Backbone:
């Protein structure tokens, strides 16, 4: 079977506010929350700059209820999903568009077992005071790599059925 398109997105970031849990007319749970991702780069004049991009995340079903229960503002998450743009009418009857990430999976990356509170609460320090000399403190790149490794640890390595 040949595929000519692919819609998959991965977002690693922190919640901008607590999830909003609502129920559809048919009683299905739906939760929405914004996630911020940051990009650091050097501008044309050599200045270090940072850009924050906000992503609207939508989760359905039992996963929505889990998100509402476990996440809060500042929670660190890895979201797997697809991009959807929907059209709607605003209060003044103007046609508007909203682009959202429809989550297939939300991985909670905050530490629960090491003393941290669920949902982005206080976390243990990144480096112990008595760390052996020569060991470097874990920086953002190491944190990112660790979060990605944790999020994809259960993905099978056999890629024989990939369409490319």
Residues:
């Amino acid at each position: 079977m040949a595929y000519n398109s692919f819609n998959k997105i991965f977002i690693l970031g922190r919640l901008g506010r607590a999830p909003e849990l609502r129920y559809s007319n048919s009683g299905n749970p739906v939760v929405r929350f914004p996630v911020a991702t940051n990009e650091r780069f050097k501008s044309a004049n050599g200045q270090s700059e940072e850009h924050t991009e906000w992503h609207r995340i939508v989760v359905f079903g039992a996963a929505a209820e889990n998100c509402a229960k476990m996440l809060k503002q500042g929670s660190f998450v890895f979201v797997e999903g697809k991009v959807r743009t929907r059209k709607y009418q605003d209060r003044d009857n103007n046609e508007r568009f909203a682009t959202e990430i429809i989550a297939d999976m939300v991985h909670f990356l905050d530490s629960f077992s090491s003393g941290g509170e669920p949902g982005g609460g206080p976390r243990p320090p990144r480096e112990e005071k008595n760390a052996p000399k020569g060991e470097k403190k874990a920086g953002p790149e190491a944190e990112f790599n660790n979060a990605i490794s944790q999020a994809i640890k259960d993905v099978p390595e056999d890629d024989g059925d990939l369409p490319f």
